[in-house]
Amino acid sequence: MSLEFTNDSPGLTDVPGFRVGAAGCDIRNKGLDRLDLTLVVADRPCVAAGVFTTNDVKAGPVRYSQTVLAASAERIRGIVGNSGNANACTAAQGDQDAAAMAQLAATAVGFPSDAFLVCSTGRIGELLPMTKVAEGIKVSAARLTRDAAEGVRSANAILTSDTRPKSCSARFTWEGKVVTVAGIAKGAGMIEPNMATMLAFVCTDAAASPAELKTALKSASDQSFNCVSVDGDMSTNDTVLLLASGAAGVAVGASAPAALRALFQEALDQVCFALAEKIVGDGEKITKVVSVEIEGARSRADAEKIARAIGNSLLVKSSWFGEDPNWGRLADAAGYARTGLDETKLDIFYDDVPAVLGGRPLPENKPRWKQVVQAARFAVRLKLNLGDAKFRLLAADLTDGYVNYNKSE
Amino acid sequence: MSLEFTNDSPGLTDVPGFRVGAAGCDIRNKGLDRLDLTLVVADRPCVAAGVFTTNDVKAGPVRYSQTVLAASAERIRGIVGNSGNANACTAAQGDQDAAAMAQLAATAVGFPSDAFLVCSTGRIGELLPMTKVAEGIKVSAARLTRDAAEGVRSANAILTSDTRPKSCSARFTWEGKVVTVAGIAKGAGMIEPNMATMLAFVCTDAAASPAELKTALKSASDQSFNCVSVDGDMSTNDTVLLLASGAAGVAVGASAPAALRALFQEALDQVCFALAEKIVGDGEKITKVVSVEIEGARSRADAEKIARAIGNSLLVKSSWFGEDPNWGRLADAAGYARTGLDETKLDIFYDDVPAVLGGRPLPENKPRWKQVVQAARFAVRLKLNLGDAKFRLLAADLTDGYVNYNKSE
Fold it and tell me: What share of chain A is helix, strand, coil (3-state, %, to 5)?
């Protein structure tokens, strides 16, 4: 019954019944060497769920996938994804191109046209080069396999300015049957060259209804993808998809024993959290991953507001880059989150070293907390002492490299 | 009756009946050459109003000044301000030190102790060096004068990482009597070395009640100081103060003729807006001032949300730095303000050059809009075509210099 987690696994090919193929079709106009298209295909119809950007401006593939899930979430056969072009801010043609990608993928593998979900990431405001995309889909379809090497190629094909592929797998056994959950992702705060986008594809051979799957994915996302921040810019294309084939013969939904449901949720949570952590750790030109931990808030919403104010403050992020334990900026950002913070009750820690207790600075600890911020990963913890709620945000520093990387196309 | 506006005036010494003095008292431990303390003193009791940071974490001087204004807004005799230390996050001792500054100032010029307002800006989390501050107040008091040169020294004494003093004056004549409004300010997004703070002191010889003055100042601030952003970090110390001596013999409050009230408001608006514009233009290591103009929103609040999302987006600000007309990032940030934007109605302009109309990109205009973003000042305009409301935010770019300047103490 215990859970086995594998970091940096080959990814989706770890799940029995799923095949992947990847191709380079030169969407970026920079040659065919770079992988930029991938297909994920299930051997049998899957139940699927998605979590999408809440941006008012949604890319064509986001709108398309949402429509497909609303109509046919129980007969999904796969995902077609590309990097290099986000197909966002492309008006009606963008919607047509997203639908055409799904149609091309379905035709290539012999499934109905409403069986594919579509994801794009990259430059925005430009039309997809559909001739190239069609060729990429054809090549990817011809390569479909469960070989681990193709799993890695697939994880690479969705990357933009990420420096490495992101994948992991979790596996557990229930009554002699093995259930696998595996995922791949690409990062946030990355620009190719125009837009930050986070994509994650998670597949499993467990069985569940669309509603059950959506609940499980929402819960996992809230604890992972929604708790990370690189630069605070939410994309037009952010998408997390979960496909469940049921091939393992293990139903994990509402009628399943509580222990099994918990096991599946834990597997999904671990996969999503590991992918989210990889996204922050590979944030664009970052040098630090900082866990912003807010405790003792009146509500989770208050704790989240404070964590995001800190995690998105230019002054705070610049000081992390400089390894400067600048707790004053933490207190300032916490204050302008305007949750009704009581400064006289505020404790601030770097890892376990107190810098402020009850609103009073402890300058004598400075040598110790200066040590903490030298590390590539550390925590800043604010105890508000107002209640029991908490929130944790994984954030990154802001570097001169980020600004220079993003200053032009 | 016409209004005469003078940019870069000597500042507060332009107003008859106000004297200023400034001193260097080495609050930064870097020698006495740098001015870091100033007194502003009125020859007769003033009515005063203030607008303060809404940060939950308020500095000692902010709390002190708010208390004084609540109790004795009709008998204010002046302001004592310092740079180099914000007296913020300094617990009970900070409150005592702020009160002591007011007491020292009052004693030095022979007024009651509740006659002075107090402002501090600079490093946070450290106690004020009160012996030095006391000496600075004594020296400043001895220098009190209406000489223009001292006015300039006073404007310099409140600066932190600003590169130049900020001052302006407006003057009008009503029934043969001259009314003057003059102000000085220090900038936002500036760190000395720990905290962004905006301070502005405005003096006039017009007469008004505390409530009238507060209304006038609130209105002027909402159109000026509250419409600028350098880095989105709100300080613990932000303060705008307005002192009205009545010495000109012109009452500008509710009982005044509408034309006179309008004239005074216009003078105050011009002074506040010019100071706010100087603050953005001298934002830390910035290279561009960009007017973010949102039109056709359903409400002013919606327009403001979108303007702030754009003005505080790291990706947008980085692209301004790179003179990259990246309208996709504008659309993305506008979308994640989540006001119910309709992408198919959205128009985007650089100055007057359309980049997007009705959600459709106009790539043929790219050479023209690339030209616009070369300038040190330009506008990005989003027409939402959903209503009649609008908001304008003056914002700055984000540079590698900002990050490197702020990465350590």
Answer: 35, 30, 35
User: Among the three residues B227, B257, B281, which one is the final residue of a domain in this structure?
Assistant: B281
Are residues A253 and A142 located together in one domain of the fold?
A: yes
CATH code at B318? 3.10.20.340
Q: With an 8 Å Cβ cutoff, is A406 touching chain B? A: yes
Whole-number Å distance between alpha carbons of A103 and B395: 44
Total length of chain B: 409
Q: Residues 320..359 of B with a Cβ closer than 8 Å to A: which? A: 321-324, 326-329, 331-344, 356, 359
Mark whether B260 and B327 lie in a shared domain: no
Q: What is the DSSP letter of A218?
A: H
Spatial separation of the C-alpha atoms in residues A101 and A127, rounded to whole Å: 13
Closest CA to B251 of B263, B242, B235: B263
Total CB pairs under 8 A between chain A and B: 208
CATH of the domain at B102: 3.60.70.12
* Residues B112, B185 within the same domain: yes
Q: How far apart are CA A119 and CA A240, in angstroms?
A: 9
Any A CB within 8 A of B57 CB: yes
What are the CA-CA distances from residue A359 to residues A343, A364, B66 (Å)?
5, 15, 20
- Is B174 within 8 Å of chain A by CB? no
Same-domain pairing of B177 and B252: yes
Give the chain A residue nearest B195 (alpha carbons): A329
Same domain, B125 and B228: yes
DSSP type of residue A253: S
Q: Which of A13, A53, A121, A197 is catalytic?
A: A197
For residue A144, give how far its alpha carbon lies from the nearest alpha carbon of chain B (Å). Answer: 34
Closest by CA to A34, choosing from A23, A21, A48, is A23
The β-bridge partners of B85 are B121, B123
Counting beta carbons within 10 angstroms of the beta carbon of residue B362, is it exposed (0 to 12), middle (13 to 18) or buried (19 or more)?
middle
Token readout for A4 is 């086995």
Give residue B350's domain range. Answer: 289-406
Same domain, B168 and B310: no
Would an 8 Å CB–CB cutoff place B56 in contact with chain A? yes
How many domains is chain B partitioned into structurally? 2
Distance, CA of A80 to chain centre: 17
Distance CA A80, CA A37 (A): 8
Distance from CA of B61 to the nearest CA of A (A): 15
Q: Tell me if ipTM is over 0.90.
A: no
pLDDT in tens, chain B (409 residues): 589 999 999 999 999 999 999 999 999 998 888 999 999 999 999 999 988 888 888 889 999 999 999 998 999 999 999 999 999 888 899 999 999 999 999 999 999 888 999 999 988 888 999 999 999 999 999 999 999 999 999 999 999 888 899 999 999 999 999 999 999 998 855 433 333 467 889 999 999 999 999 999 999 988 888 888 777 666 677 888 899 999 999 999 999 999 999 999 999 999 999 988 888 888 888 899 999 999 999 999 999 999 999 998 888 999 999 998 789 889 988 988 889 999 999 999 999 999 999 999 999 999 999 999 999 999 999 999 999 999 999 898 999 988 888 887 5
Q: pTM value? A: 0.82
Which H helix or E strand runs over A301? helix A300-311
A91, A315, A402: residue with CB nearest B196: A315
